[in-house]
Amino acid sequence: MSKMLYVSHSPEETQKFAREQALVLTREGQGQPIIVALEGELGAGKTTFIQAFAEALGVEEHLKSPTFVLMKHYHLNNVPKYHMLYHIDCYRLSSSVDLLSFFGKDIIHLPGTIILIEWAERVADILPRNHWVIHVDHIAEQERNISITKHE
Ligand SMILES: Nc1ncnc2c1ncn2[C@@H]1O[C@H](COP(=O)(O)OP(=O)(O)OP(=O)(O)O)[C@@H](O)[C@H]1O
Ligand SMILES: [Mg+2]
């Protein structure tokens, strides 16, 4: 398990960090599924991170949180070995059973897919062994501690 910490002083810095991470993760991922669990309190910056992450991979549509639909997907056209990005928001879920009944277990094993999950704490028990955890801590109005941990 390796861990890295980044201190962000503004939404723009969080976005810049997210764009960098998008490029690193997809380059290192080699087409294997990339699962990113985002943790952090209400308004920490999870969606802000995901928006910039998706933008860096060429998602043009402005990504909004799928709080009511649970999941949204975006086609990737210019990312080597990755063709689909899923954004899942578990805020309204009480357990992982709800998520499994929604789209089954297979999605997390599909090559060429990237899955970003907000409120991932709620479905921690069904995450695959290989995944990333990004934890955003609200420090001050504009300051956030962002940690990235690789689980394998
Ligand atoms: N350094 C920072 N990084 C990220 N967001 C910041 C930062 N400083 C201030 N903000 C503000 O905090 C808010 C973060 O909102 P965002 O929707 O990304 O949070 P969230 O974690 O997805 O919340 P929710 O739990 O409701 O889904 C935005 O209004 C953003 O402008
Ligand atoms: Mg959000």
CATH superfamily heading: P-loop containing nucleotide triphosphate hydrolases
| CATH architecture heading | 3-Layer(aba) Sandwich
Radius of gyration: 14 Å
Number of domains: 1
Overall residue-averaged pLDDT value: 91
The N- to C-terminal Cα distance equals: 7 Å
The computed structural class is alpha/beta
List low-confidence stretches. none
Bound molecules: adenosine-5'-triphosphate, magnesium ion
Largest sheet: 7 strands, mixed
The percent range for helix content is 25-40%
Number of strands: 7
CATH fold call:
Rossmann fold
Shape: globular
Number of helices: 3
Percentage of β-strand residues: 25-35%
Largest sheet: spatial strand order: 1-7-6-2-5-4-3
Description:
By secondary structure, this protein is of the alpha/beta class. The chain has one domain: 3-Layer(aba) Sandwich (Rossmann fold), CATH 3.40.50.300. 25% of the residues lie in helices and 34% in strands. It contains 3 helices and 7 strands. Strands 1-7-6-2-5-4-3 form a 7-stranded mixed β-sheet, covered by helices on one side. A hairpin with a 5-residue loop joins strand 6 and strand 7. Helix 1 packs across helix 2. It is globular and about 40 Å long. The site of adenosine-5'-triphosphate (ATP) has 17 residues, from helix 1 and helix 2. The site of adenosine-5'-triphosphate has 17 residues, from helix 1 and helix 2.
